Amino acid sequence: MSFRRSIAVGSGRLGAWTLKNVFHRNASTLPGRIALSVDSRVLDELGSRPSKGNIVVCGTNGKTTTTNLLAHAVQDSGQRVACNWAGANMATGVTTALLPSTPVEWGVFENDELSTIHIVPHVKPQTLLLLNLFRDQLDRCGEIDHVQDVIVQALSASPATTLLYDADDPLCAGIAVKIKKAGGKVLSFGIGEDLNLPQERVRGGAFCQECGAPLTYTYHHYGQLGDFSCPSCGFERGELDYVARNVRVGIDGVSFDVVTRDGSCMGRIHAPWGGVYMVYNLLGAFVAALGAGVDLKQFQKTVDAYDPKNGRLQRFSVKGRHVTLNLAKNPTGFNQNLGLLMSDPAPKAIYIVINDNANDGTDVSWLWDVDFERLGDLTDKVVYVGGLRANDMQVRLKYAGIDAQIAGDVAEFLSKTQGLPGDWNAWALTNYSALWPVKADLEKLGDVQ
Amino acid sequence: MSRKLRIAHLFPELLNLYGDGGNIITLQRRCEWRGIECEVVPVHFGHRPDFSGIDIAFIGGGSDREQRIVCNELLAVGAELRSYVNDGGVLLAVCGGYQLLGHSYAMGEETLKGLSLVDMYTDRGTPRLIGNIMIQTELFDMPVVGYENHGGRTHLADGVEPLGRVVHGHGNDGASGYEGCRWNNVVGTYIHGPLLPKNPELADWLLARALERQGASCDLARLDDSQERAANAVMVSRMEAGEA
User: How are beta strands B164-168 and B120-136 bridged, if at all?
Assistant: First the structure.
């Protein structure tokens, strides 16, 4: 290690020690920022600390859940893991996670899509798991074409990395085509059957990544995901290396068989969380875990024990009322969440909280890409809105034919709806920066289930 | 006499960046609430629409890649669109769609040919102009608010009126103090996505112009716009306070 690099690591560690022992804080980015400011290439050194390798997870939706599942699975198999558990997903967060001097076998890191270029070339992961690319926070991320270019560049600078990607997503498949052409390694996964899901009103990105023609679908799951092909140039999903088959999706969870390219079934994975997106998250995490020596039985054990309490589909009980909290930060995620909410047969009080802080994206135009119109099908419902953009949300619902009132916080929402019969369930859907205050309030007001 | 409007949504599958569809929903509902029949005609990729039965046309925004794809499609209907707007046809174009109204859009090395419906052109600048925006138009008292996000700088020729004066934000080129364009019954603006929901007066202005062109009564029954106005006012005060 060069002198400068030792100083960088040393000052980062000192920063972490000071924060922990003097200020009693467990900072997730500051120690990394200190180390990077001393030596901007400190990750080259730190990235080789995990003795067996690194795995990077990126994609618009599902990063935090997938990374945590994967890291737990590797850990539960008896290997030590460095991970940016809390989702600090830029270079500073990854550097912070790698600073401690304790030996580790694996590094498992969530990466912000645009940060891959600052991380992947340095930590040179064994696998980059690419979950999906949806339009999200355009003002922060830039257009999706740019996001794709950045990921291709990051992978080109780490040629030994295998790209493990959701092949049902043409935007991920477009990246894989470029990597394959450049001689890189790719592994694909996807859902190998029609789930007969209700189709959404707005769909994005369903155009050929190679020639621009509209794609056709044998079947379509949600967003731009499905079994696609281009009628004009032959760009297509193609054969999958790992396929989810016999997929069951319900409000009580998902289950599916993992089938390999040669047709053999490795076993069945099941999880108590609903949503088709969980099939992708679980399948992606499992295949990445395979590469770190975790078998399906071990992976299932980890899933069974996993309870992140991170506001993603977290359930509470407040004065006898069942409350479900979920994160919904972009149209695709929101449509999925509305689907879950609609599958709850009980009458519902719904609270939608929308902020426009920097980490949410200051542009809330996407609210009009969410199919709120489908809430009109619910007969027994009351709807409240909150957050910095409560008024925008109220107008959005008005034009979807839904009358909504404003409630300043989740306590006000629950008090305004407390007169409803006990068999009504409450649902709180929030975007990113609104999640933590609502979660904290619910933890204070009631019992976590 | 029963009134009916037909709205053409051009290439909804391509030019649909960030909630553009909110504009169509808004026009539709505001007709329905007044008993004006309203039909939305999506013009899909490869279709050649007949503008003779159209009262309002809408062009949304797309990513640069999508805009390249759609540009040829739009040019193929360019002559029809031109005679439609010359005949007083109402056209709303936002963001990428706005840029294509002009003669050309220079994107770095490449220059896209535009529709030449409005005497203006666009070139590229840095940085991208991003953020909440408020403009004052001459059409009504309430400011028009929304969000802009564009690398393009649009330059209007003499005689082309802007949609309004920038009160907060960047506008056409970040320098002139003007935003958008208004020519005949064509409105173009960088205010992307759901422009109309929070600006009900602009939505009604478009409806009134379309009815007027039909020779129908352009009297529009007053609606309860308190929620729309509140949403507009919240953003006005946040921008004035420097909090958005």
Answer: antiparallel
Does the beta-carbon distance from B18 to A396 stay under 8 Å?
A: no
**A236 and A96 together in one domain:** yes
Distance from CA of B71 to the nearest CA of A (A): 12
Q: What is the pLDDT of residues A21-31, one digit of tens each?
A: 777 676 788 89
Beta-carbon contacts of residue A407 (< 8 Å; ≥ 6 apart): A351, A384, A385, A386, A413, A416
* Whole-complex ipTM: 0.97
Please say whether the beta carbons of B55 and B214 come within 8 A. Answer: yes
Q: Is the Cβ pair A399, B29 closer than 8 Å?
A: yes
CB nearest B231 (choices: A145, A356, A394): A394
pLDDT band at A346 (very low <50, low <70, confident <90, very high): very high
Contact of A304 with chain B, judged by CB distance below 8 Å, is answered with no
Average pLDDT, chain A: 91
Q: Identify the weakest region by mean pLDDT among A20-24, A138-142, A393-397, B199-203.
A: A138-142
> CATH number, domain at A72?
3.40.1190.10
Q: Are residues A214 and A350 in the same domain?
A: no
Residues on chain B touching A212 (C-beta within 8 angstroms): 65, 68-69
The boundaries of the domain holding residue A195 are: 49-305
- Cβ separation A368–B227 shorter than 8 A: no
Query: A167: left (phi > 0), else alpha (psi -120 to 50), else beta?
Result: alpha
Cα A206 to Cα A214: distance, rounded to the nearest angstrom? 6
Residue B1: Cβ-neighbour burial (10 angstroms; 0-12, 13-18, 19+): exposed
Residues A72 and A135 in one domain: yes
Domains (range + CATH), chain B? 4-240 (3.40.50.880)
pLDDT confidence bin for A143, thresholds 50/70/90: confident
Angle formed by the axes of helices A390-399 and B226-240, to 10°? 150
Chain A hits for B145, CB-CB cut-off 8 Å, are none
Which chain B residues in 45-104 lie under 8 Å from chain A, judged by CB atoms? 45, 63-66, 68-69
CATH number at residue A370: 3.90.190.20
Shortest CA gap A369–chain B (Å): 5
* Residue B16 contacts A, CB cutoff 8 Å: yes
CB contact under 8 A, B131 and A362: yes
Per-residue tokens: A178:
């470029």
Residues A151 and A205 in one domain: yes
Classify A51 as helix, strand or coil. coil
Residue A138 has pLDDT above 70, yes or no: no
Specify whether A3 is located in the same domain as A121: no
A365/B22 touch (CB, cutoff 8 Å), yes or no: yes
Whether residues A109 and A138 share a domain: the answer is yes
Do residues B205 and B140 lie in contact, with contact meaning Cβ atoms separated by under 8 Å?
Answer: yes
Number of independent structural domains in chain A: 3
Question: In terms of domains, do A56 and A40 share one?
Answer: no
pLDDT tens, residue by residue, A63-88: 999 999 999 999 999 999 999 988 88
**A163 and A58 in a common domain:** yes
